[in-house]
Amino acid sequence: MKLHPDLEKILIDEASIQQRVKEIAAEITRDYAGRSVLMICTLRGAVMFFADLVKYIDLDVRMDFIACSSYGAGTSSSGEVKIVKDISQPIAGLDVIVVEDIIDTGHTLKYLYNMLLNRGPASLKICSLLDKPERREVELEGDYVGFKVPNEFVVGYGLDYNEKYRNLPMVGVLKPEVYAK
Ligand code: PRP
Q1: Are 20 and 131 in contact (CB under 8 A)?
Q2: What is the CA angle 63-41-77, rounded to 5?
Q3: In 3D, which of 158, 153, 161, 162 has the Cα closest to residue 170?
Q4: How far apart are CA 67 and CA 64, in angstroms?
Q5: Which residues of the chain, if any, have pLDDT below 50?
């Protein structure tokens, strides 16, 4: 596939993503054998990962969706998180996995995790396609992580810049001149 002109390079190609997604799905299938699991997709970045992941999980999977936004302008989150759309069911007593596209500062997931934990799930785990540990501002680890990525401006496979590039099947690094404009 041709490199998108706004990308400096491909960081993780489509085949590597798909392979890793299958591995994570197999791990989840093993860990939750005999149980049903509620998978919560965080809109919008996790949509691509979520859709692929659930297809490969061989369990009784239910799905729900949540959307949060971090206050503050720019490309990094400020630490304040707002729920824009909540999930549509109680989760008390359920085995829940929250699916994210990226853990960056960690503020979004920390907030979400604590909020969901307060609702009394039987278990609560975090699954993120990407992890950028260099950027972490709060202590938080993903239980299932696809790839650790360096502190570069990554887009594609759900991740955007100004709402663009979410539909690319790979994860790439954006050219600095694109976001410096
Ligand atoms: C991104 C991403 C995570 C969050 C990670 O969401 O999807 O939710 O930022 O950053 P943090 O670890 O620093 O909190 P964004 O607010 O860009 O929304 P989107 O998913 O709709 O792209």
Answers
A1: no
A2: 160
A3: 158
A4: 10
A5: 73
Active site includes 64? no
* Nearest-angstrom CA–CA distance, 126 and 40: 10
Whole-number mean pLDDT of the chain?
94
d(CA 33, CA 28): 8
131 lines ligand 1 (CB under 6 A): no
128 CB under 6 A from ligand 1?
no
Verify whether ligand 1 is closer than 6 Å to residue 133 (CB atom): no
Host H or E run for residue 179 = helix 176-179
Cut 0.90: pTM above it: yes
Residue 123 burial (C-beta neighbours within 10 Å; 0-12, 13-18, 19+)? middle
Q: What is the pLDDT of residue 77?
A: 58
Q: Which two tokens stand for residue 29?
A: 């299938």
Sign of the C-alpha dihedral computed for residues 11, 15, 17 and 19 taken in this order: negative
| pLDDT, position 142 | 97
At residue 76, the pLDDT reads: 57
Alpha carbon of 43 to ligand 1 centroid (Å): 9
- Rounded to the nearest angstrom, the distance between the alpha carbon of 33 and the centre of ligand 1 is 30
* SS3 label, residue 126: strand
- What's the CA gap between 75 and 96, in Å, rounded? 29
Atom nearest to 132 CA in ligand 1: 12
